[in-house]
Amino acid sequence: MSFPWAKQYEPKNPVMQWVDSRLPLPRFVYNAVGAGYPVPRNLNYFWNFGILAGVALVVQIVTGIVLAMHFHSSAAGAFESVNVGMMRDVNAGWFLRFTHANGASMFLAVVYIHIFRGLYYGSYKAPREMVWLLGVLIFLLIMATAFMGYVLPWGQMSFWGAQVITGFFSAIPVVGEWIRVWLLGGYAPDDATLNRFFSLHYLLPFVIAGVIILHIWALHIPGSSNPTGVEVKGEQDTVPFHPYYTAKDGFGVGVFMIIFATLIFFFPDYLGHPDNYVVANPLSTPAHIVPEWYFWPFYAILRAFTADFIIPAKLWGVLAMFGSILLLFFLPWLDKSPVRSANFRPMYRIAFWVLVLDVLVLGYCGGSTATPGVVITSQITAAYYFAHFLIIVPIISRLETPKPLPNSITEAVLANKGGSRMTETAVSA
Fold first, then answer.
1. What is the pLDDT along the chain (429 residues), one digit of tens a residue?
2. Is residue 222 part of a domain?
3. Of 97, 104, 165, 360, whose CA is between 20 and 30 Å from 148?
């Protein structure tokens, strides 16, 4: 419970009273997503993407468990079990497979929007640093799970993706080659690789679910952020999560499912790669090795380093790729502005949209053939990506003069409806 005025759980039914006195699970749910959890009254639809990520994870776990029953984790049987066995011999297997494959893209799309929402509205700032740190950890786990899942169909792009990505670990001095052999279970992707990746791909979603519980727990201590960035001042600034936001989230889930179903039934292979319908061949390298779309920005950063400088370019690429995610852990301490929301930070808002454009260009470069023009563009945009977090944001947070903040969430809501004017109080939340 985040606020003292939250309604207490009071079961009326004798059975529920008996359960609550021995296992207060209904009380826990009521306080987490029911009327016992007051939330700011001004949350917009970008706050739907947290629950959408949860829905996507459940879809991936359920479909993944069923698909795992029919998967052969061997180099001789993986491709056929995915492309023939599941598609033809399993009841509704085609639906489960396309739902799982496209579900990964939907999951990552939702997570990316969720992250950028946090960047725009300053959800990483105190007192929600732990919420942000756990969110970045979830993102890393999702990326690892998605990469291992992409290898399992054992098509050409799966095999060579594993070969190329694990090959970059060998650039790490002293222990690099040892790490690569440990990941693959040998000197090249084979049966041992499939067994290891399949085992971890099955395990990690449950680890992600556990970290999400911690993420929500950490969120409920300070309470949800909101578009103004101003903290809740009183009961008038909040509404119960249920029914107001369960209804709003329900609408969001409906729209999400329509888009998801359209992808599954009309464009099931649109986000995949045709080479992955060709069985893995260690003797035939594809003309253009490219990962799934959600890895493209980081793949572009990896390829942006082409010249040795003190250490090999390959090692610079590996360090930069992992560093581009790891630096997000330090964002709460890089941005020292007392104002959270970009709505009140004109300079930061411009920098944010430039970053969005920069990541989109990185994504384009990561999915394109590495021509000289693409490599130069990758180098410029990769440099800007790091400059945004390490130079631009810290400088802006010191020089920027934010717009006046509303005195309260209620005042901001009424001002938007023309009921009152916001006062010029630049007090940080």
1. 557 777 888 888 999 999 999 999 988 888 888 888 899 999 999 999 999 999 999 999 999 999 999 999 999 999 999 999 999 999 999 999 999 999 999 999 999 999 999 999 999 999 999 999 999 999 999 999 999 999 999 999 999 999 988 888 888 888 889 999 999 999 999 999 999 999 999 999 999 999 999 999 999 999 999 999 999 988 899 999 999 999 999 999 999 999 999 999 999 999 988 999 999 999 999 888 889 999 999 999 999 999 888 888 888 998 999 999 999 999 999 999 999 999 999 999 999 999 999 999 999 999 999 999 999 999 999 999 999 999 999 999 999 999 999 999 998 888 876 654 444 444 443
2. yes
3. 360
Catalytic, 408? Answer no
DSSP, collapsed to helix, strand or coil, labels residue 387 as helix
Would you say 388 is a known binding-site residue? no
Choice among 73, 81, 105, 224 that is catalytic: 224
Domain match, 221 and 91 both: yes
- Produce one character per residue of 315-333: b if its CB has 16 or more CB atoms within 10 Å, e if not: bbbbbbbeebeebbeebbe
Ligand-binding site membership of 100 (annotated): yes
Residues 222 and 300 in one domain: no
CB 304, CB 378: distance < 8 Å: yes
Question: What's the domain range around 392?
Answer: 290-403
Which residue in 220, 233, 242, 403 is the catalytic one? 220
- 249 noted as active-site residue: yes
Q: Are residues 295 and 347 in the same domain?
A: yes
DSSP summary character for residue 30: H
CATH number for the domain harbouring residue 322 = 1.10.287
Active-site annotation holds for 220: yes
- Ranges of beta strands (E only) in 221-315 are 238-240
Do 220 and 302 sit in the same domain of this protein?
Answer: no
CATH number at 226 reads 1.20.810.10
Q: Which among 29, 95, 108 is positioned nearest to 67, based on CA atoms?
A: 95
378 is catalytic: no
Amino acid sitting at position 302: L
Domains contained in the chain, number: 2
Same domain, 262 and 343: no
Report how far Cα 382 is from the mean position of its chain's Cα atoms: 20
Residue 16 placed within a domain: no
Report residue 359 as tokens. Answer: 């990541």
User: What is the Cα–Cα distance from 179 to 234, expressed in whole angstroms?
Assistant: 53
Q: Is 190 a catalytic residue?
A: no
Same domain? For 105 and 181 the reply is yes
DSSP letter (8 states) at residue 82: I
User: Is 114 among the annotated ligand-binding positions?
Assistant: yes
